[in-house]
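Example 3.2
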Amino acid sequence: MFCPEDARRDVLEEVPVFRPSEQEFCDTLKYIESIRLKAEPYGICRIIPPPSWKPPCLIKERSVWESSPFITQIQLFDKFPAQSVKSKTSEFDTSTNKRSSGMSFEQGVGSGYSMNPAEVECLEDSNVSKPGPEFTLKKFKKYADDFMKQYFSSKHKDVGHLVKYKQGEPSVESIWREYRQIVENPSGALEVLYGDYLDTATFGSGFPTASNPFEFCNYPSYVHSSWNLNYIPKLPGSLLSFESDKTSGVMVPQLRVGMCFSSLYWKVEEHHLYSLCYMHMGSPKVWHCVPWRYSFKFEALMKKYLPHLPVEQSKLHQGVIRRLSPIVLRSERIPVYRCIQHPREFVLVFPGAYHSAFDCGFNVVEAVNFAPLDWLPHGQNAVALYQAQGRKTSISFDKLLIGAAREAVKAQWELYLLRKNTVENLRWKVACGKNGILAETLKSRVKQESNRREPLCTTSQTKMKDKSFNAGGKRECSICYVDLYLSAAKCACSADRYSCLNHAKRLCSCPWTEKIFLYHYEISELNVLVEALEGKLSALYRWAAGDLNLGLRHYLPKENSRTEDNGKKERVYKDAGTSWTTADSIKAEIKARLQQSQYLSKQKSKEKTVSTPSLPSVTQHDTSLLIRGMMPETLSSSESMSSSSESEETVDTGHNDGGKECILSISSSRPPSHPKREVTLSELMTDISSKHGKASRPASKKQKRK
């Protein structure tokens, strides 16, 4: 005879719990990065905010609590293994059925645990969610409390064991063991309700928002907190900040309302993103997690237990894998970790980790996705997986990747030339360099894109995308649904139908010569971007000046702006980057550097910054190094942007052991080729010095004669 209190204890290892200090809690992404190596092996962890962090629970303080209705979903726990697998309906002795607030349940006795593939398949077919009645939060809480009271105060059939609810609510361990019985050894029926995917943009968030004047005035510190789930996707350093498509569901926090036994089935986050979940109020939530490194083994086990599951259900585009006991997974040598979340606590789910959860009573949680830089390899793998499965994507990985790369180039420009050592710039700097995660991911993606374009495209069939291509939202391949941010194929026979390069032949039956290939960037341009991220100085200058329109004179103080050469106009590259900055522009750049150096030396004694290293003076020698890297490309408008012929110049703006920023070295593996129209550095410097009034040491008579 089974008794929940005497059930065998199959102990699951608990996940790490982190308690950041007040200072550590100030920067969300920085703190998550600091705990990643310790927490990621578990796939999930708990984060308990400092005691002083007590945001208001606005879903209860506002009219939302009593006046905002939501449609619930019904979870059916029926057709359990104790019944006939072939049975299509539940057969009970209705006289012994217990009812509470319209819910029915009958809990039977199990004699040891066993589950075979047929039983699990039966479980899969029946345990689906169906639309339920409409509730407000206030009414749903009463409904959930009544259910829990009656369930645990009722006498279980054939058990003879009574749980006295009036003696106090059951413990989390008691509810966990009871839930295991429902999943593993049930012989009755149970229905529970829950509210899921409640869009906070319409239903309301539990956190204060800047768009609400009352909340903005009364809770300013929580409105601007980096732990406010409404702003985490757009934080500096989160790649989702480059996603402008407001229709993407991953950008908006979602509320979930639960009651005792309501479950979140096994799933992995969309696009394998990070997930951060905060419990606003209510009873604990118990999480189970399988780390990412065991995801393939987990999926293989699902195929083993569900061999006849329809293909469309087994695909991850459902986002859900139905109930499978943690004990079953452990018996297959798949590690499962447990996490118990309480009110005012965060649960962090790492990319690619399979996780499930169930509620110990009424509660309200809010969750959102985000993507720090270390997510890039996971996101790239998810794109390949979705394309193979023919699954629609909700975000454009390529758009996020290019957006991050452009921001990183801007950060390196400001760090190296302007010495702006801001937190955001230093965060991007870590991802750069030849071994940086951003540079490596982009290099891999560009190589993949180049391989796809090379055998397909000819000059006569290629065009650059116009600005209206993505104006209506994210474009997808009409065959495999992959994102078309970097390239696409189309045909004149269908103006609004596109495909990826892999499926160009399947786009239509028209001849191959009728196909047109659209590019956002040329491969030569993308190679320049890769080299800029790796630290090549000439590539950094070319991308910053050409794509970002950055130049030192844009940052000069207003009082020095009169010294700019107003008569010279800068020509930036156009038509796929075939022409770059002219020699006149280089003169202006050198002049700007000298001017910047003089201004910094004057202001050095006045400026007071926190942890800002000393800045080396900009000399003509430094300028010559910059010119040496730029001169071959800038003086020849017909030269290609390809990186194969450029010198391997790199610049490292890293920190030494003392924490001071410095330029380490700039070396060239071979001398640059000479352009047709040769302009020497001395000519440029002489011209600048004569106009700027800051000429260097006068040349000797012998030098003049020469």
